[in-house]
Amino acid sequence: MTGVLRGISRLLCAALAVLLVSGPAHAVDPIELADPALQERYRALSHELRCMQCQNQSIADSPVGLAGDLRREVRELLVAGKTDAEVRSFMQERYGDFILFRPAFTARTAWLWAAPVVLLALGLFVAVRVIRKRASVVDEDDVVPGEEGASR
Amino acid sequence: MKRFLLPLGLFGLLVVVLAVGIQRAPEKSVIRSALLGKPAPQFVLPVLGREGVFDSSSLRGRWYLLNVWGTWCAECRAEHEMLLEIRRSGVVPVVGLNWKDQDAAATDWLQELGDPYEVVALDREGRTAIDWGVYGAPETFLVDPMGTVIHKHVGPLNPEIWQRDFLSRLPAPRPAGAS
């Protein structure tokens, strides 16, 4: 009895997992390329390109017409033997750096890439200073342990 | 008291940065075209209302507007009167790029509202629109006689935008009598 129940729940879990993983992806983009290697590159590339109409989605996730047209363009370029870099620059030439979720490091995008590092360094610098300061306050207390007791 | 000065100052700075960001948001949401200063993409497309094709290279040697529109686009209706006005003024010819539309619907639209276009090229599959980096109709490009993209406007045209962003970039009209 328990074995049967366990079997059923396992089946349900598996079905749920399949639904969770495959549901949304297929709803938007039902087309698969015949060549698995191309399909994988197509999948990766279409997640790297921004949907210009909905801006916070990739063209892989967006159901709008233009995203579909751009996916078609990516498929055709890949099938025609273009490299990933060539597909990216095809899009960049037409839509600018904005279409790439990971734009190339150029003079124009340098601040974009540098900002997280600079902010992190700044944060670390401030944190170290605050910690040092606190530590030195504690040290002074250690030097005159009597005062703490006296002030109580 | 003094120890609050730095955090307070930083907070003030943040407020200023965010306020400027919010005020400039409407223009920031418009993405600068990657085509500005570059050669206008070439196309050969079927034409609305007649046989044969339209080759964009025939536009060489003169200024023109390329207006991307579709009957499914509500904002296009909003700018239609402005396009008719431009046609009447005769300042610059308007080439229509009918984007992913039904030919019959486009014909009806022009019959009903008036036709501001010198020619309407039919981009039924949306490939030419991609070459031009179009992401939402209406979009209007200004191209110079060398075939260079000078300006792009996203959204409906109105007299203010026309004056500020287009007429100011076009050469001043030649005085009557001059060749």
Fold and architecture overview:
The complex is a heterodimer of chains A (152) and B (179). Chain A is mostly helical. Chain A folds into three domains: 1-27; 31-104, Orthogonal Bundle (Helicase, Ruva Protein, domain 3); 106-143. In chain A, 71% of the residues lie in helices and 0% in strands. Chain A has six helices and no strands. In chain A, helix 2 (36-48) crosses helix 3 (65-79). The radius of gyration of chain A is 27 Å and the shape is flat. By secondary structure, chain B is α/β, with parallel strands linked by helices. Chain B has a single domain, classed as Glutaredoxin, CATH 3.40.30. Chain B has six helices and seven strands; from the N terminus they run H-H-E-E-E-H-E-H-E-H-E-E-H. Chain B has a five-stranded mixed β-sheet. Chain B has a two-stranded antiparallel sheet with strand order 1-2. The longest helix of chain B is centred in the first third of the chain and has 19 residues, at 5-23. The interface between A and B is medium-sized, with 13 and 16 residues.
Concise account of the structure shown:
In chain A, 71% of the residues lie in helices and 0% in strands. Chain A has helices at 2-28, 36-48, 65-79, 84-95, 110-143, 145-151. Chain B is an alpha/beta fold and 179 residues long.
CATH superfamily of chain B: Glutaredoxin
Domain count of chain A: 3
Q: Report the order of strands and helices of chain B.
A: HHEEEHEHEHEEH
The percent range for helix content of chain B is 25-40%
Instruction: Quickly give the CATH architecture of the largest domain in chain A.
Output: Orthogonal Bundle
**Which two chains have the most extensive interface, and how many residues on each?**
A-B, 13 and 16 residues
Strand portion of chain B: 15-25%
Number of helices of chain A: 6
